[in-house]
Amino acid sequence: MNENVTLVLLGGAGVLLGLFFFGGLWWTVRRGLASKRPALWFIGSLLLRTSIVVAGIYLVSGGRWDGLLACLAGFFSARLIVTRLASPPVGHHNSPVKEPSHAP
Questions:
Q1: 13 with 60: CB under 8 angstroms?
Q2: For residue 52, is it within any domain?
Q3: Phi, psi angles (nearest 5°) of residue 100
Q4: Is 92 inside any structural domain?
């Protein structure tokens, strides 16, 4: 029973790390596109987010393979959460161009 609780907590830590990573990516895209130097934003953010998440997953899991899998499962669950929250509603496209309904 104690092992299952530990894996659930590790999965929760993976979700928090994933929210940090993908939320940071969303924030970087919004800031980087309006910047005079977008490459600096994107490269710096990638290095910072990746190093924090890799170190966090390794430290939290303690190097155990089942802990690593639980953290990674939580991490990818956070990806689904962030993409769902950050995407515009389905019926509200900002594109004025009408998409073709068939292949050319």
A1: yes
A2: yes
A3: -70, 150
A4: no
